[in-house]
Amino acid sequence: MQTFEVEISTEYIALCDVLKITGLVDSGGAGKAMVASGIVMVNGVQELRKTNKIRPGMQVQVEDQVLIQVVAAPAEE
Fold first, then answer.
1. What is the pTM of this model?
2. Other beta carbons within 10 Å of 28
């Protein structure tokens, strides 16, 4: 299984944007279509909300092929 780590400095990121950042899709629209197809899971549960808020500590999985860990960016000093 291919794994990615997405680091965010905000409270959350939209699910379709997570897919775009990792390069799994070329655009936000393609990310929304992927979510709508039913192959995306968040924390082990199928997710159909395209702009679901993904926060640090959450996992996004696409079929049994890709696992994405979302983590918080280190605090700036």
1. 0.90
2. 15
Output the six-digit token pair for 5.
């780590």
pLDDT per residue as tens digits for the range 21-45: 999 999 989 999 999 999 999 999 9
Question: pLDDT value at position 75?
Answer: 78
Closest CA relative to residue 13, chosen from 48, 41, 55: 55
DSSP assignment of 15-75, as one string?
HHHHHHHTTSSSSHHHHHHHHHTT-EEETTEE---TT-EE-TT-EEEETTTEEEEEEEPPP
CB atoms within 10 A of CB 31: 24
If DSSP codes are grouped into helix, strand and coil, which group holds residue 9?
coil
